[in-house]
Amino acid sequence: MSNSEKEIIKVFTGKSHYDINIGRNISQKAFEEILENYNDFKIAIITDSNVERVYSDFLQKLEKNDRVFTLSFKAGEESKNRKTKEILEDNLFELGFGRDTLIIALGGGVTGDLAGFIAATYMRGVPFIQIPTTLLSQVDSSIGGKVGIDHPTGKNLLGAFYPPSKVYIDIDFLKTLPNEEIINGIAEIIKAAIIQDGQLFNYLESKIERVINLEKGYIEKAIISSLKVKARVVEKDEKEAGLRKILNFGHTIGHSIEILSNFDIPHGRAVGIGMAVETLISEKIGILKLEEKERILALLKKSKLLDKSFKLSADEIIRKTALDKKSRKGVVEYSLIEGIGEAVYGINVEDKIVKKSLSEIGFL
Length: 364
Ligand code: ADP
Ligand code: ZN
Fold this sequence. Notes:
The protein is of the alpha/beta class. The protein has helices at residues 27-37, 49-54, 56-63, 82-94, 109-121, 135-141, 179-196, 198-212, 218-236, 251-260, 267-284, 290-302, 314-323, 351-361; strands at 7-12, 17-23, 42-48, 68-73, 101-107, 128-132, 146-151, 154-161, 166-170, 334-339, 342-347.
């Protein structure tokens, strides 16, 4: 893919479909296209305080158009709540936004989830466009249509399925992203490879450093391949009746770690550790070959996803998995792997196997 080329992936939903446009330096053009396609709409760009600061010149230029307004909130997961939603909705009404509103989410996963949830209910639903700016949101949360906010009881407990009208992925946004956030996104790329795309896994085994360094061509390939995995899975099972559960590989353990660390361990990192543990579980229950387990652990290590020490206790993590919103009546259903590129879901696992796997990875 050269500079000017862009790749388009179509995602089919129940009734229609939306396009994901991927390329470098495409956001200027994207906004021109949006202004034209939505020429009688008023446009609210919802963003967080960091993105607003880093891209202030870009936003100020856009705001020269009198149909365009930027609304921002304090960056961070702590803002993904009812209070922020209320303030942003109040802002929209004060600025006179009516039925002819287009909401654009410009930012990471927090922005996309929050702005999308506002779009889902504002005036009974207004069109919504995602412009994800973190690697994690570019490969994962900006597609699939899940939007929502957190509640003190848990993450993403208030939400909806509300697919975007379009997604623009501008790889150049990643240039300003801290390295830690890149690693966070790499975890979901590796997940996509492990569950559905053995070829991508082979590619990552030899090219992961180049992908992490955002080298031209390599990061594109990783993003596009993992988007295709996610797109294929969510179009077969939009509402998570079955197949979509394979996307939760690494997430049962990952979520517990994320919560128990009070979100000090960010999502991608927690999922990276979760994938290591769930890979061991898969091998211990006899569905995954030893050799494939070794390859997965090696790739996770090479990606710097397993290089911190863990202070959490295995028993606590296991207890927490039973409280996950995805467990049924306290029985935890794992999404595991039968091979690289072959995921299965709905598996019950004995606590003692989970515990053994956790301790092998280094939990107390
Ligand atoms: P995620 O996308 O990982 O789910 P966030 O939406 O919280 O989570 O984004 C992670 C952090 O990265 C936030 O502090 C956000 O402000 C910041 N951020 C998002 N995009 C960029 C960017 N392109 N450059 C620099 N910082 C960014
Ligand atoms: Zn995830």
